[in-house]
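Chapter review: from sequence to fold.
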Amino acid sequence: MNRLQRICAQLAPAGANAQLTSAGTSGYKKPLNVLVTGGAGNIAYSLLFMIANGDMCPGQPINLRILDIPGMENNLEGVAMEINDCAYPLVQSMVTTTDYEVAFKNLDVAFLVGAKPRGPGMVRADLLKANAKIFEGQGQALDKYASKDVKVVVVGNPANTNALILMTYAPSIPRENITAMTRLDQNRAAGSLATKMGVNVSNISGTTIWGNHSATQYPDVNHAKIAGKPYPLQSAPLRDVVGDDAWLNGDFITKVQKRGAAIIKARGKSSAASAAKSSVDHMREWLCGTPAGHVSSMGVISDGNPYGVPAGIMYSFPCVCTNGTWAIVGGLPIDSFSQAKMDATAQELLGEKKMALGQ
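The token string follows.
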């Protein structure tokens, strides 16, 4: 068991999702080295304060690194000033930098948020090629400087293929230690279902995101449950309780797939806070464990998966996390409707891989 796994076991005894307090812990727990890239951006501005507050790893002290590109030094300093002013007890040290070696040295946990956004006239292929350069460099830095048991979640879009590029250029890092965030889509799905059914979102469990964090993703409710419906203190299959297959197979899927664009249209800005919160959810469950009865949708390497998804792509599956490791949930029955959706998003990811890596 490596150091990070021992910390995970402390945080979640016997696989439980323990919620530890900060009181009295910083004196005996070795801090985790935690990196956030794109540190001057909107997502990071929400994310950094959640991490510093202990939302990622309750009770666990951290050394915080904040990275951005040259020219953003003053912006990074302003963010660091605010974090200092919050007086977070778990933050043992903090460094802002534009230097990969400083950012990635002995790194334990990484949130790779910084990525090139799509500009005017850019098609997806242009975006993939532009981000390939960024994640090639970060992969090389990860390979050279980081701890070999580092845990990485790629948030910057196109997240799945950016994570695959990163993995390609970090061959000494175990492939299972690099992931892509699709938890935002899972949270969006659960929120939409809870609103429709008039229940708290905690009553919804088992929603799954298959495939790519894009408009081809498949939010699947066939294995989901809802608590408190139709009777209090009971749980039932969500599809049966909703009783509206046309909505679940149509507008619901489209709503989740296009939620990001809808938020931009409504507020004129991207969904930064929800992306930040979802990335924290992703990492917390990876480190501390998936709550009983739930799944963690994660973009992970597809090699050896039990659903016939082609190998060699970063594909979102339903996972369960225990003591710092994830495992794909196997044995779920897949109907023909779901299979077609899963195949379509896999084909998109294979196309992205070819565009980004020529493979």
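Two observations follow directly from the output. The radius of gyration is 20 Å. Confidence is low (pLDDT under 50) at residues 13-27.
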